[in-house]
Specification:
By secondary structure, the chain is mainly α. The protein has one domain. It is 80% helix and 0% strand. The protein is built from 11 helices and no strands. The chain is globular and about 50 Å long. It starts with a helix and ends with a helix. 37% of the residues are buried.
Length: 214
């Protein structure tokens, strides 16, 4: 419980925590951000790490000169693409064993089958859309690997999605993160980002419920 509260606090007050990291580690913060984004996208067991909010906050600090924008964009983009790639190959080679493991109840064959059906219906764009949905962003490439999605199709959507996600949120933070109204209510902005990010899940859920009722 304390661990979850600390993660929640880190995400809500990410501007303060990231500022402390920059103060303590300077330019090495770019490398720290790389590993956080890589882990958030690359390991199915770490979906709780900050993604959208971290990109936005990093962009805001880049606007202040605390981080180098060009390097930041390249590093975060590389982390996102490499993370999804690692997650795909973990799912490809070890996914079925993880799915069949009774000690991991939140990943089971039913979840895999439903996700594969979604892939068949929506195609590779699922990988792109998943970039913008917390938790799903971490789970989607793993399931793509388990389902043996063609790697050529996967990597193209991975690169495109990683580019739009990292550049979009980072540059949003760069241009808007230091506006007085945003700085004064940064926690509310982060909550808004999270809520907007999960809206695709809500819409898809409502849509599926309506289709079943009809």
């Amino acid at each position: 419980m304390d661990f979850l509260l600390s993660i929640f606090d880190f995400i809500l007050h990410i501007d303060t925590h990231l500022g402390e990291i920059i103060k303590d580690y300077g330019a090495l913060t770019h490398l720290i951000l790389f590993f956080i984004i890589f882990a958030e996208t690359g390991f199915v067991f770490t979906p709780f790490l900050p993604g959208d909010s971290l990109l936005f906050a990093a962009g805001a600090f880049a606007a202040l000169g605390s981080l180098h924008l060009s390097w930041l964009l390249l590093i975060l983009f590389a982390a996102a693409v490499l993370g999804d790639t690692a997650n795909y190959w973990i799912g490809h080679f070890f996914g079925q064993k993880i799915v069949d493991n009774p000690r991991i109840p939140f990943i089971n064959q039913e979840h895999i089958d439903k996700t594969q059906e979604f892939y068949k219906k929506h195609g590779g764009k699922t990988i792109f859309l998943a970039r913008f949905v917390p938790i799903v962003r971490t789970f989607a490439p793993f399931v793509a690997g388990v389902g043996k999605m063609h790697y050529g199709k996967f990597i193209s959507y991975n690169i495109f999605g990683g580019f739009v996600w990292t550049f979009g949120f980072t540059l949003a933070g760069y241009f808007f993160g230091n506006l007085p109204s945003v700085k004064e209510h940064f926690s509310l902005v982060i909550v808004a980002i999270i809520l907007i990010s999960v809206m695709p899940i809500v819409f898809e859920y409502i849509k599926s419920k309506r289709s079943k009722s009809n």
